[in-house]
Recover the amino acids of this structure.
């Protein structure tokens, strides 16, 4: 297929691009490089543009005879969405609706959407199946849920074929070592802990140790970014007109903040000083996926089952690219 990967220069998008190319698809990346990196995409495949630019998108889709769109271009930080919700609604909702309109006009009806565990809010059960009510507790989660709803309506009315993939915590990097996670500023746990091992930070602050979890720190389901990429490819192959596939993508295994720090100590051999700080607003105590549906529907089997393996791939990337991508 000819696939337009919107936001394909970002962290998860760039890994999906590699997987799609590996499977023989013809891939074009559409990205404004506001948070993505030129160095994360193969030469000659990048089209620079804005998601809100409908006419341009229509032109691109027609010119490259696009069969399917994967959409990774969104802002994805909870705190930032609370501070600047307008930016989140504009980019994650309005621009995405422009993209969907452009697809309709260009007669492209296959869509794979990056959704999130944040659409569940604080579900209070673990693991979390897809049938859990979606009650987001921050603007980021709401923006993603709005698009999930729009997609269900577009599927019913216009015959759209879509998948909404609800990621848990994306982590790690391609074992090849040349693409990985590069955010500025960095706010995610594993890269921050590895920056301590690199001497770029003095220590890591654990946001709260009084949660109702085994060791008092928050528990998350860390899923390798290459396993996410595999799920995108499998979902693309199973899209059906008028039907939506809403799938959780996680390992089903919870890992606490302390366990992540311990894993990083083992992998890097660095003592990694840590201190305890206050809770971070909006952090649910535990988010672990029930991903049986993705396994049944897609035949998806995550390959990276051990946290140390995931952290090792992240470490390789950060150690070899201490300043991230060159641009
Ligand atoms: N966290 C932490 N210290 C940090 C960054 C993150 O204790 O410097 C915790 C955070 O509170 C959460 C977990 O690590 O419980 C994962 O946070 P991250 O931002 O990586 O992903 P999120 O779960 O917010 O999507």
């Amino acid at each position: 297929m000819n696939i337009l990967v919107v936001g394909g220069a970002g962290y998860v998008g760039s890994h999906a691009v590699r997987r799609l190319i590996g499977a023989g698809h013809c891939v074009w990346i559409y990205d404004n490089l506001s948070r993505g990196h030129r160095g994360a995409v193969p030469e000659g495949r990048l089209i620079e543009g804005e998601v809100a630019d409908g006419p341009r998108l229509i032109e691109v889709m027609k010119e490259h005879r696009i069969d399917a769109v994967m959409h990774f271009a969104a802002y994805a930080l909870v705190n930032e969405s609370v501070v600047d919700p307008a930016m989140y609604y504009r980019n994650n909702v309005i621009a995405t609706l422009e993209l969907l309109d452009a697809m309709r006009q260009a007669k492209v009806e296959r869509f794979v959407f990056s959704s999130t565990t944040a659409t569940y809010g604080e579900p209070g059960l673990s693991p979390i199946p897809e049938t859990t009510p979606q009650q987001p507790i921050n603007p980021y989660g709401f923006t993603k849920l709005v698009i999930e709803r729009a997609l269900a309506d577009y599927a019913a009315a216009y015959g759209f074929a879509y998948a909404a993939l609800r990621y848990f915590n994306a982590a790690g990097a391609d074992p090849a070592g040349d693409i990985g996670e590069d955010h500025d500023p960095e706010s995610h746990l594993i890269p921050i802990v590895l920056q301590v091992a690199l001497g770029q930070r003095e220590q890591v602050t654990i946001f709260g140790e009084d949660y109702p979890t085994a060791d008092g720190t928050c528990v998350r389901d860390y899923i390798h970014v290459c396993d996410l990429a595999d799920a995108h490819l499998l979902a693309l192959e199973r899209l059906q007109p008028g039907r939506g596939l809403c799938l959780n993508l996680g390992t089903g295994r919870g890992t606490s903040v302390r366990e992540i720090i311990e894993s990083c100590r083992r992998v890097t051999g660095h003592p990694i000083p840590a201190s305890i700080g206050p809770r971070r607003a909006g952090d649910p105590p535990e988010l672990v996926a029930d991903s049986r549906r993705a396994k049944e529907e897609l035949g998806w089997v995550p390959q990276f089952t051990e946290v140390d393996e995931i952290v090792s791939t992240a470490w390789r990337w950060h150690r070899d690219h201490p300043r991230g991508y060159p641009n």
Q: What stands out?
A: The chain has a mean pLDDT of 97. The two ends are 30 Å apart (CA to CA). The domain at 189-221+252-290+298-320 is CATH 3.90.25.10 (UDP-galactose 4-epimerase; domain 1). Residues 85-105 form the longest helix (21 residues).
